[in-house]
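User: Can you help me understand a structure? I only have the sequence.
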Amino acid sequence: MKMNKQYIAQITKMGIIAALYVALCYIFAFMSYGPVLQFRIAEILLVLAFYNKKYCIPVIIGTFIANQLMYGVIDMIIGTFATILVCLVIISVKNKIIIAPAAAIINGIIIGLMLYFIFEESYALWFIMANVAAGEFVVVLAGVLAFTGIEKINPKFINLIKNL
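Assistant: Let's start by predicting it. Here is the structure, written out as tokens:
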């Protein structure tokens, strides 16, 4: 089967996004994982899915790979599941303002529960959920605001993102 250049370019771009997600998690590992003050900078990339649902694939792959760093298989499965749910919400909404609260609620509940059981009740469940949700909200909101600003300053860049 002969692959065309457009398909290869698309796969390459997806690989770069997945690699960027993993790299950001590894570079900022000190704040990307854990039950307290979790700010996963890589989650900014979730906003890309608002512009083109194809970005869900590299973000999900990046999440799966990055989640093996700290908590292994359990996080690879549960954390990736949370990302899939967030992506489903993002591609089904028409307003970017929904992205940050949705990501915060989904990750706060799912990742909060996972971390609660991993840390064997070292922290109260509500505390872990609130910390994960707050960190997720701040990071994704920053991404939404950044991309909204880019839309105004450089609409050609947003069109490039839309046309993966």
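Now, to help you interpret it: The chain has one domain: 5-162. The chain is about 75% helix and 0% strand. Let me know which part you'd like to focus on.
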